[in-house]
Design brief:
This protein starts with 5 loop residues before the first helix and ends in a 20-residue tail after the last helix. α7 links the parallel β3 and β4. It is of the alpha/beta class. The chain has a 5-stranded parallel beta sheet, sandwiched between helices. A 5-stranded parallel beta sheet has the order 7-6-8-9-10, with helices on both faces. The protein contains 14 helices and 10 strands.
């Protein structure tokens, strides 16, 4: 995709995706560092929200935290389920672009009534309900999103949470690699993709995503519904070769996100050899499958994987003749607090 051709630039979705490199370049780490000070008292952090505001930002943070061997305990759940948990020893972050997500507001209202003192909001708007029910709100700088599918805001949320881990990562690459990551993000978003792959995805009745539990594959599963209006499924770990192959069909497609080298042969044998389906990879390394090669930038690898997936889905949506900004049923705020 690019902003030079009308078939792309006429969509708000594409314009907002293409703002992401600048969101990375201009990201201000100071508010996230201040938030980390608040969390340090407990070293227990729960990240909640709904849809895209939780999937990639929260799961990517958990992944990075575990890789670091950090003393922080981080978990995530949807806000309704979190209402059943005992959270006295946790700092709770609720991400809501609109600041009006009903489930998050209900959770924070309950926590306030219980006297919970460490509840923090992350939103793109001021003067919203989330401010009223939070001890403190932190604000995204990415600006308004008009497309139904959240894009640039998801990346800024992820950078915010990732930056909070800085106290356990003295040599964090985020600041040092920021410009390189912005340049790589631009290149990944504008990368031309093979027409035959796009045709294969356009024809597929369902697109599966498989890969690490970092939030990337799961978020792209949601974006597939919103952008291409196709059915999709997230196959965590090796789920793709542990039973579901029984009902897979040759006209379906699996997209592997940064696959483990040790698993490539099994995927090829079961999915390509056994089912006869198409398998595509998004990876910094070559694979036995058609591969969308992306650069590696320390601290930003999962972001670049996500952006490569956006590029792929936009191409599928455009080739399918879909209005990328118009959904029949999906809404920008899935469940808005009234008022």
């Amino acid at each position: 995709m690019n902003l030079r051709e009308p078939r792309y630039r006429d969509f708000a979705l594409v314009r907002e995706m293409m703002e992401t490199p600048d969101v990375i370049r201009r990201f201000d780490p100071i508010p996230a560092q201040e938030a980390a000070v608040e969390v340090h008292a407990t070293r227990r952090l729960l990240l909640t929200g709904e849809g895209s505001s939780r999937i990639f930002p929260a799961k990517n943070t958990i992944y990075e935290n575990l890789k670091l061997g950090s003393p922080w305990q981080i978990m995530t759940e949807g806000a309704r389920q979190v209402q059943e948990y005992e959270l006295n020893r946790f700092a709770v972050f609720g991400a809501s672009n609109s600041g009006r997500t009903k489930e998050v507001i209900a959770l924070f209202t309950q926590l306030a009534e219980e006297g919970h003192e460490r509840r923090y909001g992350l939103t793109a708007h001021r003067g919203v309900k989330l401010e009223e029910v939070s001890v403190r709100c932190f604000y995204l700088q990415c600006g308004e999103e008009n497309a139904v599918a959240a894009t640039k805001s998801v990346v800024e949320q992820a950078l915010f949470y990732r930056t909070m881990l800085g106290e356990t990562e003295p040599d964090s690459p985020l600041a040092a690699q920021r410009d390189a990551a912005a340049e790589a993000a631009q290149a990944v978003l504008e990368m031309p993709l093979e027409a035959k792959l796009i045709e294969r995805l356009v024809a597929a009745p369902i697109i599966y995503f498989a890969g690490r539990n970092t939030g990337v594959a799961e978020e792209l599963t949601l974006k597939t519904n919103e952008i291409t209006h196709k059915k999709s499924d997230y196959l965590e770990g090796t789920y793709a070769v542990h039973g579901i192959e029984e009902v897979m069909r040759p006209d379906e497609v699996v997209v592997l996100i940064d696959p483990f080298p040790e698993e490539l042969e099994k995927f090829r044998d079961v999915l390509v050899g056994g089912v006869g389906m198409t398998v595509i990879a998004i990876s910094a390394k070559e694979t036995p499958f058609p591969t969308i090669r992306i650069p590696r930038v320390p601290g930003y690898d999962t972001v670049l994987q996500l952006l490569a997936g956006w590029n792929l889905l936009v191409e599928v949506g455009v080739a399918s003749g879909i209005n990328l900004d118009k959904a029949e049923r999906a809404r920008k705020i899935g469940n808005a607090f009234p008022g």
